[in-house]
Write a structure and sequence with these properties.
The chain has helices at residues 2-51, 53-70, 73-86, 93-113, 129-136, 140-152, 182-185, 214-221, 249-256, 287-295, 300-307, and strands spanning 157-161, 164-165, 170-171, 207-213, 226-231, 237-242, 245-248, 263-267, 271-277, 285-286, 312-315. By secondary structure, it is an alpha+beta fold. It has 3 domains: 1-32; 73-199 and 283-315, no CATH class; 207-277, no CATH class. The longest helix has 50 residues, at 2-51.
Length: 316
């Protein structure tokens, strides 16, 4: 009887142990999916910001707000119009960026000197949207976006010297060298010194000529006698004597409608031939020179640094 009782007791203990093991396994089986689901939920939560459309919208909105807070869109849109009016749209991107910084700097200098001015009062060739449509036709979207990208990628950047916006003048084409500011506007400005502009010889405006009869020449200058010609080291006419009267190179350029003050006058049997090199006053950045530099790998900072010596680029 004792043996039977011990056997029954052992059986009961084994049975109880099985029940405990079963309960543990059951509980674990129930909890395991929960643990797995919790891990999956965590992964889903971590992935949600990347994949969620709502998250992307919020991130984009925050980025745009930050971007817009830093940019004066009125100024930048004005610069878009200036670049469109001042530089050929088929110029390389880095040349367009250099033009954008120069145009923005020139505008801010004028506005700082006279706060009563509006953008319409600034002496730059600004082109409005309507005119752009007329110029580019079906290519409007492509061209407009190209220029806008060049402008906005340099947004707020200006050239400074002594913590002030520089006189960021520019011209189409030089005679191969830019002219000293002092020889054009009587101001000695360090960052507007003469520099080589190698690529200008490839400009379609590099050379030009004008032929005048003796009668026409005399009607303009009162004489056919050409005297001493004084040129700057860069090759631009400073002074020239005609019939005993002295003219500035800029004065002759204006009287004859020449492209540049870099000219030579040749007298022949039929009259006079005036040969010019370059297009514009020759001071500051050459646009065709900038084009050449960009086509040869220079970025806009290198271009600006070449033409505006000692000036630095700063962010507004």
């Amino acid at each position: 009887m004792q043996y039977k009782k011990g056997k029954v007791s052992a059986i009961k203990e084994v049975t109880a142990l099985k029940r405990i093991i079963f309960m543990v396994i059951s509980i674990f089986a129930v909890m395991l999916p929960a643990f797995a689901m919790r891990d999956s939920d965590t992964q889903a939560e971590q992935a949600l910001p990347v994949c969620s459309v709502e998250f992307l919208k919020k991130a984009e909105a925050a980025e745009n707000t930050q971007y817009n807070n830093k940019i004066d869109s009125t100024l930048e849109d004005y610069v878009v119009g200036v670049v469109a009016g001042e530089m050929p749209v088929n110029f390389p991107h880095e040349a367009l960026k250099a033009q954008a910084v120069a145009a923005r700097t020139y505008a801010l200098r004028q506005l700082n000197e006279d706060p009563s001015l509006s953008y319409d009062d600034i002496a730059q060739a600004h082109t409005d949207i309507e005119r752009m449509h007329s110029m580019w036709g079906k290519s409007f979207d492509e061209n407009y976006n190209k220029i806008k990208n060049a402008v906005y990628s340099t947004a707020g950047e200006i050239l400074e010297y002594d913590n002030k916006p520089i006189l960021a003048v520019f011209c189409s084409t030089t005679n191969g060298h830019t002219e000293e500011c002092e020889n054009v506007w009587t101001q000695d400005i360090p960052y507007l010194s003469s520099v080589e502009s190698e690529g200008d010889k490839y400009s379609p405006y590099f050379e030009d000529s004008l032929t005048l009869s003796k009668e026409k020449f005399k009607a303009i200058f009162g004489s056919e006698d050409i005297g001493e010609v004084k040129k700057s080291p860069a090759g631009y006419v400073l002074n020239i004597k005609i019939g005993g009267r002295e003219y500035t190179g800029a004065g002759v350029r204006s009287l004859l409608g020449l492209r540049s003050a870099s000219f030579d006058i040749q007298k022949n049997a039929d009259g006079f031939t005036i040969n010019t090199r370059g297009y514009g006053h020759g001071v500051g950045m050459s646009q065709y020179g900038a084009c050449y530099m960009a086509n040869n790998g220079a970025d806009y900072r290198t271009i600006l640094g070449h033409y505006y010596k000692s000036a630095i680029i700063k962010k507004l």
